[in-house]
Amino acid sequence: MTKIAAIALLAFKTAVRSKLFVSLMVVLAITVIGLPLTAKGDGTLAGDITILLQYTLGLAAIILGSVVLWSACGTIAHDIQEKQIQLIVTKPVHRYQIWLGKWFGLLLMSAILLSFVGVTVYALLCWRIKNSHADDIERTGVYSEILVGRKSITSLSESFDDEIHQRMDWLVENDRIPEDMPYQEIYTKTKRRVLSEKSTVAPGQSKRWVFKPFSCGDSNVSVYLRFHLVSAGMDRKTVSGVWLVGTEQKPDIFRSTMDKCRAGSHSILVPASAIPAGIPTVVTFINDAGEQAATAMFDIDDGLKLLVRWSGFKMNFLRAIVVIFFYMGLLSAFGLTASAVFSFPVAVFASYAAVVMLFIARFVVLTNQPIHTCSRCLELGYKVSEVQIAMHKVINGVEYFISSLTGYDPVPLMVNGMVVSWEFTGKALFLLFILYPFSLGVIGVYLLKKRELALPII
Amino acid sequence: MSSTINGEPVIKVTNLTKIFRDFWRRPKVCAVDGLDLEVKRGEIFGLLGPNGSGKSTTIKILLGLLHPSSGEVSVMGASPCSVKAKSNIGYLPEESYLYPYLTAREALEFYGRLFDMTGTARKERISQLLNMAGLTREADRPVGEFSKGMARRVGLAQALINDPQLVILDEPTSGLDPIGCRQVKDLMLTLAQRGKTILLSSHLLADVEDVCDRVVILYKGRTRVCGRINELLEERESMRLTIPSLSPEKTKEVLALIRKAINQDPEIDRPSKNLEQIFIEVVKQAHKDSEESCPDSVAEYLSSD
Fold first, then answer.
1. Residue of B nearest to A97 (CA)
2. pTM above 0.90?
3. Fewer CB atoms inside 10 Å of the end CB: C or N, chain A?
4. Which among A13, A86, A91 has CB closest to B86?
5. Hey, CA dihedral for A423, A427, A433, A438, is it positive or negative?
């Protein structure tokens, strides 16, 4: 452990005593302090806090990530280039101790910089709230919708497979499908159509959503019912109706009237007393049937949610900073492994290219449509080749891998007042800080062991 | 010269070949070609040869910094890549390769930690090494600000911090002043007397001649000459007789006697000091005059059993 600690301290000193570190501190100070002081929000306290969290913390994390990756790429590569590694590997030091020592050193640097960012952002946040001219209602809104960690509970999903197949049968029987249209496309379009119909509530009609049992913890805690209206009618722009929250037996424990609601995201405050303990919660929307009534269309992808307060902002913020730190650990490991193989410029290029490709690939795999295979589709003539299935599995694997790397950004969660839960933090810890860095470390150590460290660098 | 040599080989190289290849794995240069070498415990062994003869490549293979293309290499009875064996090896590369932003003390602290040395022992050794290197006053200055000679001294100190059984020195006197060179040579002799093995690579033949027991001369990666240094240097066809200075008359008489005995004119000259000896005497006297404290020529722990 002494050896790892010595190498870690050296890597930290290398990073800290470089000009890059000083420049970074200046850039971070400008970003963290300068940006929120100069950027103008929408004039509301919520707007100011959103800027502080989304742009300042988000930008600081990106800058920090870039620098950590840059430093990591240089750590071993510079040692090899400047030949200082020759004095280390001729001592009784294992290659894994070198890799781990360097990684810990970079983590120490990241921890210090991130602490500086975190403390500064939090201090600015407190200062903003204290010096704001916002009234009590606005402040309460900020505390209950942004400066909080809320858990999102989504309604139980329903299966519409039978209905989709019935619709497909009808289309085939009535010769309504163009000859050249693949069955996969027919299925996807039909499913989309069925789902959108199911998310539509015509005037005078109602729709129910069922949520699995959950606990609010405290009876004083408020729950928010969040929904996203895509459009409100064809020619009318607003929807009016009534929201009911309760149980199967008593669906109207809580009742809220919605008046002339426009398209967009909306929240309704529901008292915790309306949420039954231990049994499913039922939410019902009854659309108005009057002359001015319009059809309500809810978003298919961003469905109805119940938002329950789960933790305070302080702990939420702390967990978010910890998750960002895990990302720094992953970037450090990536840069270190690159620098164990390549010279500094090549390692930098390869690492940044890989990060850019990862983000591009994230958007590419989003277009990946699920392959639907069922007996009914086979009857209709839709066949999937082995190659298609294999390709789809590969793309699914890539999609899972990419989402496991990019799906732990805590900033959007915080900005929306959503909880950065312990479960989320734990998963991020396992994937970003243990599994992937360990795998990269194994590769890096193997390559470092195989590499002739006294070869001239071309 | 060392008197504690025993038969146990510390370094054994058999038919070593190293071929450097390009990116496409095509052979580019054959740096070492079928080298055989054996260095025994307690020996000071010199590795000589012109530039590009394969000296540094051989040393780097012995340290596991390069991998041999073929042949067998054993250092301290183990593979050059063995981490355990490296606990007993000290290495000074051709340039010191120190971290420029570390102070001399920090650098030695760092290398000491790599040997898992305890805090007290490490501090004690660092203090002795800094004194030996004459850098006690400069201990807290970054190495990047040092002259080449000063950095070389720190490099030498780091090579000795673990009191190694095998010391590999690549051009150890390069950049050092004559006093530093003398110190290094004295140090090598002291270490060899304690049974340590030293592998020395140098261009400065006088240094090698002063300290080495055996040498190998390499050319284009191959052994050209290998043997004990006194045997290689000895001229068996002639001998030198050193006597106290005589008057011109006595000199004539002695020469006449010798001429009669060998039936040939003998050569006569006066033994001369070399410039190194004069320089050291002058500087030592200057040190005494200015009442400055002289650094220890060898750190205490390196000279005691």
1. B114
2. no
3. C
4. A91
5. positive
